[in-house]
Write a structure and sequence with these properties.
The protein is of the alpha/beta class and 751 residues long. It is 48% helix and 19% strand. The strands form six sheets. Strands 18, 19, 20, 21, 22, 23, 24, 25 and 26 form a nine-stranded mixed β-sheet that branches.
Length: 751
């Protein structure tokens, strides 16, 4: 037995855990983690955009004394010197001026892949009709490339190379000036460089005369991401055979007098590049995350000023100098995290700055695992807690989790320059939040549909909606409220039953045809059906929702129920004729009473009803019983009468109903405010009051005269049975006088 109970409880617990969309959310969570392991481009871009946003909020601070200067082939220089390409003799002059000014090393963000067409020998061959002597003299002059190569030898110069998407010609041998790579660690870097931006099928180099003169060369191609933003710059690239440094790292090598590079590779990819005393952190594909800052005009020196020698030498002395262009026509414009448009040469300058000042952004190899674990934790938190804490707090829970993830990611960036993605864990938490919230909503809607379906035929729409919104109300307990109670019963139901004989189903259909329109009347006026007791209806007002006009609404319902009897009987007569049976008209009596009662769910833990209890409930039932002897349709108690002073009422009697020791004043409800305002009714009410006064002072003759007068003057009001009752009492009192102490109270002998 105990084992069975434990199993049932365990099964119930598992069902609760599976509810609220938890299973679906768990499946989605597993799918999202699997997707993150594949890391599709969409996730990668979203992650990168987040890191861009961090840098826009907190860009890298500009150094007080930038270690890099840029000689700019700007629009003004092109306008003054001439269109590009310039003769390399001019570049030799520019380079000599930089070397003389104390530049530590000069890097060209330019590839000189072809000989200078302005070299004397090439000019001589290109000019038709040139005499032989002039041609020989031109060919004897040194070429522009030789002059530029000589200037390169006089300084410390890095020439650019370009990565190509397809090979061009035969792969040339690597010149001896390429630095050697010291590979250490447990892995081979080449497989990790077979990645966009780090791998090119071929490398376009400079003419041999220039390559041989240079102290080093580096790749100048900073591959943008799929959205066109330069974020990760390779510090080393490959063509599948050899390793090549980037322009920025090669310029750093020369500037720090390092002989070679060290590349650290492990089983999970490349970790860093060692460059003398500088350790360049990379991602697994040998790329450095660029910690960007705003465009800095201080770095730029117009090339025309350097050519003329009219520039401040202190701006290049002791610095690494890059030669590049900001001219739009030359097409070297890039987008970085902090700038939509920036000269490509400044990307190299910013990368060098971040390395020299140890301000590198790092996306650690462990970051994907950390992000997946964070996503799992956030998703499971949503799955477990959202269905438990309710709609009011679920949004705060999600915002708290999202805030913690974003805050932790921001802290790592702003304090440690370490990148951890908060987007994927937050999106995972959001998906689980939405699914579990929807699951809880769907479950609640199912509960509401159940409550509406199960209770909607027995309770008012207001109560059904309240229970649907808060199923917790379906528990034992009650409260004291001022309410109005209604009891309605069919008169002569035994005779009606006999007309059906053994046809119980026919009798049931008749009762349903009666109860349905009567119920509609009550529900339409904010009433609640308490129960049906055979041919009797019990209803109440002012619960579960407040109804300040509960007495008036109950009275209007009673009047409408009486008014609807005539058309209802006509329909029932037609049905009876069609079925070939005798039709017995339905007549009803209604009792109304107001006052404090206890209302709530009453019964047992296994079964209970929303109902009312109290002395005022019993009195309402007794008043319904008095409608028959007094010959009126609706009898209302004194409390109800006091709450509807504008309605058309006549006092019936001061009686002690059965089961009550105190007398109550009862009234007949004949109509609403419209009837009450009629002069004819007001005259009737005055004469009726005079009748009751004569009756209570035991003036039997006056009472009889007034009854006869009223019946003759106001035949449209159904008072015959009421006055017949008073006539019989007067006859009894004449035979047995009640005595001088009589207070006018009549003690009822029936319910």
């Amino acid at each position: 037995m105990k084992t069975g109970v434990v199993a049932k409880r365990l099964a119930a617990a598992l069902l609760r855990l599976a509810g609220g969309g938890r299973l679906v959310a768990l499946a989605v969570l597993v799918g999202l983690v699997a997707m993150r392991l594949g890391d599709p481009q969409l996730l990668e871009i979203a992650r990168a955009k987040t890191f861009d946003f961090y840098q826009q909020l907190k860009p890298r601070p500009a150094p007080a004394a930038p270690p890099v200067a840029i000689v700019d082939l700007d629009e003004a220089s092109l306008a003054q010197v001439g269109q590009w390409p310039w003769p390399r003799t001019l570049l030799a002059t520019l380079l000599d001026h930089l070397t003389a000014a104390g530049a530590v090393a000069v890097g060209f963000d330019i590839v000189f892949a072809e000989p200078d067409r302005m070299s004397p020998a090439l000019v001589a061959r290109a000019l038709p009709g040139l005499d032989g002597e002039t041609a020989r003299r031109l060919e004897a002059l040194p070429g522009n490339d030789q002059i530029f190569a000589a200037a390169i030898r006089r300084g410390r110069v890095v020439l650019g190379m370009a990565g190509l998407d397809s090979p061009r010609g035969v792969h040339p041998p690597v010149p001896p000036t390429v630095p050697s790579w010291g590979k250490f660690g447990t892995g081979d870097p080449l497989p990790w460089l077979a990645y966009r931006g780090s791998y090119y099928p071929a490398v376009l180099r400079n003419t041999p005369v220039l390559d041989e003169a240079a102290a080093g060369w580096g790749v100048v191609t900073p591959a943008p991401e799929a959205d066109g933003v330069v974020r990760r710059v390779p510090v080393v690239v490959t063509d599948g055979h050899d390793l090549y440094p980037a322009l920025s790292t090669e310029l750093l090598r020369l500037g720090t007098a390092s002989e070679n590079f060290g590349i650290m590779t492990a089983a999970d990819g490349i970790h860093f590049i060692k460059l003398g005393h500088n350790k360049v952190e990379t991602d697994s594909h040998g790329r450095v995350w660029l910690y960007a800052r705003a465009h800095d005009p201080r770095l730029y020196i117009p090339a025309k000023d350097v050519l003329s020698g009219h520039f401040d030498a202190a701006r290049v002395a002791g610095k690494l100098v890059l030669v590049g262009t900001s001219a739009v026509g030359l097409g070297d414009v890039r987008t970085i995290a902090t700038e939509r448009q920036i000269p490509g040469v400044e990307v190299h300058a910013q990368l060098i700055e971040s390395i020299l000042f140890a301000q590198q952004l790092v996306y650690p190899p462990s970051a994907p695992l950390v992000e997946i674990l964070a996503a799992l934790a956030a998703g499971l938190l949503m799955i477990v807690l959202v269905p438990l804490i309710g709609a009011r707090w679920t949004l705060l829970l999600f915002l708290g989790v999202a805030g913690a993830l974003a805050g932790g990611s921001w802290y790592e960036f702003s304090r440690k320059l370490t990148l951890y993605d908060a987007v994927f864990p937050t999106l995972t938490a959001l998906c689980c939040y939405i699914i579990t919230t929807y699951g809880s909503f769907a479950r609640e809607e199912a509960q509401k549909r159940y409550v509406r379906g199960a209770m909607g035929r027995y309770m008012s729409p207001a109560l059904v909606e309240k229970l649907a919104d808060n199923p917790g109300l379906l528990k034992l307990g009650g409260e004291t409220r001022d309410m109005t109670l209604l009891f309605c019963d069919i008169r002569g139901f035994t005779t009606i039953s006999e007309s059906f004989g053994a046809d119980a189903q026919g009798l049931t259909r008749l009762i349903n045809r009666f109860l349905t329109p009567m119920t509609d009347v009550i529900l339409a006026r904010k009433g609640t059906i308490d129960k049906y007791m055979g041919d009797c209806i019990m209803a109440f007002w002012n619960a579960p929702l407040d109804d300040p006009d509960h007495a008036a609404n109950a009275c209007r319902s009673a009047l409408r129920m009486m008014a609807d009897l005539a058309p209802l009987n006509e329909r029932l007569a037609g049905i009876a004729a069609a079925e070939g049976r005798r039709h017995v008209p339905i007549n009803i009596g209604i009792g109304l009473n107001s006052g404090d009662v206890v209302v709530g769910n009453m019964g047992s833990d296994q079964r209970f009803d929303y109902s009312v209890l109290g002395d005022n409930v019993n009195l309402a039932s007794r008043l319904e019983g008095q409608s028959k002897p007094y010959g009126v349709g609706v009898v209302i108690g004194e409390n109800t009468h006091a709450r509807v002073p504008g309605f058309a009422t006549l006092e019936l009697d001061l009686i002690k109903v059965k089961g009550k020791s105190e007398a109550v004043r009862i009234h007949a409800l004949l109509g609403d405010e419209t009837l009450a305002a009629e002069a004819d009714f007001q005259a009737l009410r005055a004469r009726h009051a005079a009748l009751l006064a004569a009756y209570r002072r035991q003036d039997w003759a006056e009472a009889r005269a007034l009854m006869a007068e009223i019946l003759a003057a106001w035949p449209r009001f159904p008072l015959e049975k009421l006055y017949a009752l008073y006539e019989s009492r007067i006859a009894e009192y004449e035979a047995q006088p009640p005595g001088p102490a009589w207070d006018g109270v009549y003690t009822a002998t029936s319910k």
